[in-house]
Amino acid sequence: MGKATIKKQKEAQNKVSVYDEALRNHTSYSTRGFDVRKTGSFGMEDFCEYMIRSISDCDFEKYRTEKSFIHYVSRHLFKEYHIPGFMDQAWSDNNQKEFRFWFVAAGRGMSLYKTCTKEYMTKKETHLFLTKGRNNLTIYENIWLARARAQGVDPSIAVTLLKANPRMCNQLNDEFWLGVFKFFIKNPIKKGNKLGEVIDFLIEQKHINPTFTLKGRTVHSLIQLSDQWHYDLARIKKHGTGHWDPLPISNWQREYGNSKNKRTYEVKQILTGKELSREGNAMRHCVYSYKRRCQASQSFIFSMQKTEYETGRKEYVTRRCATIEVDKNKRIVQARGYCNRGLKGAENNVLKDWASVNGLIVNPYYW
After folding, report:
1. pTM of this prediction?
2. pLDDT tens, position by position, 185-235
3. Reduced to 3 states, what is the DSSP secondary structure of residue 134?
4. Of 305, 234, 246, residue with least CA distance to 274
5. Cα angle value 305/306/311 (rounded, 5°)
6. Degrees (nearest 5) of the Cα angle 179, 180, 185?
7. What is d(CA 167, CA 220) in angstroms, rounded to the nearest whole number?
8. 12, burial (CB in 10 Å: exposed 0-12, middle 13-18, buried 19+)
């Protein structure tokens, strides 16, 4: 290890010692609702090598709230150039501590784009982040706001979208949420709570179907899907939950067709009232009325789903295609498609393959 490196390490250690000693000796706020010894050092000691002033020069007696203390001390230690006010959250909010070096880099006059933001923003967006940010927004939200400003979008539209979906803000490089953000800043929803409702719908869809995208969709179609989802959700809540023991059959999956027309069928057992209600809502039939029979182990309900590539949407899509009832003697009592239609030829073949693997008796008159 070189002498220069050893010297830098000793200097950093001395700064940390001075920093800790200054905080340890500070007692003036213990009777004013704010005690630095209890709140800690906010992680500033990790950046001692970048300090341009000593903490021993701080006048602690002036600052009687945690917020003002952080604002003063962090700028005393690191500020040589302008630092946006909202960047204080890097020290006060542990959920945003990843931005602490951003604060230090900005204060020391380092290139924020080269050292920190290149992964998240362009040079133009970084400039807008530093100069046009809002103190009432989080650091995450200000990054998204800078992205919107760079595209010439009305900031109020961007802020409305950010407030409607706080969870989106933390997903800085998630392709899905980047697409959602770009979609809605170009096609804003301003009426009532519709934007928040649609965002909630998208969060759920992304959770249950990772391949879900906005390709080929319009604002009107999204609102329709969202309204239907909220209606179904209300029905599920009204119906309640409940659960029951399964028929000893494992979930089943098989691929059919060649590479161009490959389809994957899956059959899953439904074991809760909530899932039973979802099945009925999606398939538009009354399977939920079988809840009591399921709880009494007289009937067991299975959902058949198909995943295939849709050329129009240029992606793989999973859809429910049949609901199956099996009795306690492992006989398939009935199987119904959307709106109680009979099964199609391919669905019948899948049903027979599934029944054969699991030793089920197929009633030739179930349809």
Report:
1. 0.60
2. 888 886 656 887 888 888 878 877 888 888 888 999 999 988 888 887 777
3. coil
4. 234
5. 150
6. 100
7. 23
8. middle
